[in-house]
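Exercise 7. Given the components listed, write out the predicted structure of the assembled complex. Treat all entries as one system.
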Amino acid sequence: MLLKTKHFGEIEIDESKVINFKEGILGFEDTKRYIVLYDGDETSPFRWLQGVDDGQLAFAVANPFQILKDYDIEIPDEAVVNLNIENIEDVMVLSIVVVPEDLTKMTMNLKAPVIINTKNNSGMQVVLDTDAYSVRHYIVEELRRQEVNIGAGSDKKEK
Amino acid sequence: MLVLTRKKNESIVLNDNIEITIVDVQGDQVRIGINAPKSVSIYRKEIFLEIQAENKKAADVKAIDLKDLLK
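Answer.
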């Protein structure tokens, strides 16, 4: 199907990749269907969580495990039950990123990740019952710390 | 809003599968126990509102190239 998006103009999306969010995303309860878009580079931790019901709605998201090496969470029961999760390998975890004008103040929400069961394409945002992670985690420092790894990755490609 | 008066150890049942119990009362602090199916999401309201607000900020993102975020 064709989808008119805020960031990418009109794009063709594969309906089999549409993810159903029964409850929507907190604050956006009316948008129930999303699709994960890559921006060309699949090795980048960043993705777009693009609304399908509302093409104007898109969240920059990131794989928190790629940005914070020691990010360690337990998938809450509500997600296991509601998304019918059977295998941890089927689970994709994404953190919503706030990208302000000043990129050095970019934050990601580690406290309320988006959990997706890729097996049945269902997802929800959960709130972790922990004080270990914040809703506004500054990520520029984390990215700098990892520059070595990212650099190493691109070196490999060049060879 | 429906307002009910409960004493310590008394409960309220919602929808026949959610039970809210007043576990303890100390001054202006009330400890509440909740028994609900695992599929039910339970949030402290201030955290719920904080996450809603973060999501709204996140959705307000201008056109960016995700590759720029790694520079």
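Discussion: Residues 151-159 of chain A have pLDDT under 50 and may be disordered. The longest helix of chain A spans residues 147-158.
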